[in-house]
Design a protein that fits this description.
The chain is mainly α and 233 residues long. Helices cover 61% and strands 0% of the residues. It is flat and about 65 Å long.
């Protein structure tokens, strides 16, 4: 009887647990953008609308982005007008909430850090959701063996990691990239042995001969049916 009671309590705690989020950081990002539209360039590579926890914040962010990307001013009034045209102003709390976002944000000076916090919480929510999916799959494998479940879990985790690394990359000026690329092409073209592995050797001679090794910036996809040795490779 005690075990049943414990299980029920655990389920109740799980049901009331609030997903990772920072409403204050979300509000600061939106308020900063309403105050300074040029701040969009500092956060556009960090977050997307999907990273916001609250649905009204996602909607506001989308409309701010649409206005700015169309070279139109995005302040509390113009964003409210945009939302009203789409019939969704009431969903975000109307003019009052948009005005409060701008009024309660002192400046956009720290907006990138606020955006990073929003992104971090989004990743944590994704991890929590995938953790639940992995646990459910382990309890109910539906004919899949442990190796297949590991492959699925690994794929889901890597997908989050790749999205996170992409968000952290940021914008890079093209001039130094072009210089670096031209210099590398010149070195490769003038090398003595054209059969040398110029990238990262895999240890598989035939593969290295065909690819010249793994190169930076390449996307390598290993495709195979479950339990065929992808993880071991």
């Amino acid at each position: 009887m005690a075990l049943v009671t414990s299980i029920v309590k655990d389920a109740q705690v799980e049901a009331t647990r609030v997903p990772p989020q920072s409403i204050e950081a979300e509000q600061s990002v939106l308020g900063g953008l309403l105050l300074d539209n040029t701040a969009w360039d500092r956060i556009a590579d960090v977050i997307t609308a999907a990273d916001f926890y609250r649905a009204d914040h996602r909607l506001i962010f989308e409309h701010i982005g649409q206005l700015i990307e169309n070279a139109r001013p995005a302040d509390a009034l113009t964003v409210a007008e945009s939302l009203e045209r789409s019939g969704r102003l009431d969903e975000v709390g109307g003019h009052a909430y948009l005005g409060a976002l701008a009024a309660n944000t002192p400046s956009a000076a720290n907006i990138r850090r606020y955006a990073e916090i929003v992104r971090e919480r989004s990743v944590m929510r994704s991890l929590a959701g995938i953790g639940t999916e992995i646990a459910d799959a382990a309890y109910n494998p539906m004919g899949r063996d442990a190796k297949a479940l590991l492959d699925e879990a690994e794929t889901k985790i890597f997908r989050i990691a790749e999205a996170g690394s992409k968000s952290r990359q940021g914008f890079v000026k093209i001039d130094p990239l072009l210089t670096e690329t031209v210099e590398r092409v010149d070195v490769l073209y003038n090398r003595e042995n054209k059969d040398d592995v110029i990238g990262l050797a895999t240890g598989f001679v035939d593969l290295d001969r065909m690819t010249s090794g793994l190169q930076e910036g390449e996307l390598i996809i290993i495709a195979a049916r479950p339990s065929m040795g992808k993880t071991a490779l």
